[in-house]
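Quarterly update from the structural biology core.
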Amino acid sequence: MASMTTVLKALITADASQMQAQLKAAEGSLTAFSNKASAAGKKLSKNVTLPLVAVGGISIKAAADFEASMTKIESLVGLSSEAVQGFTEDVRSYQAQQRKHLKTSLTLCSLLHQPVYEEQPQLKLLKQQRKQPQLV
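Predicted structure, tokenized:
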């Protein structure tokens, strides 16, 4: 069998103006989305990241100040580092207790804004019956 090779040559022309218009519209909407995403990122950086970094910095400074104070106490009073370590543990225990008391206080405050008890169903029924007009 002989092999047969056929060559097909075609020239295709098309109007690409409609495709170009749609690509321009897509480009516009993608640019708008990009601008909105960029603005959201800036807001998050300003409103979330910076405060978290500040809180972290303050926490590190507070810890360093606490350690420096304990070292000063040790050197001024002449106590051993074990005794100062005991003070450190006492202070941290006290802080934990205060946090627990604060949580309890906040819970109690939130409970004050809620009804303390719920009326018994029988009492509710009696009150409803009093409100209804009675036929004689």
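Helices lie at 17-77, 81-112, 121-131.
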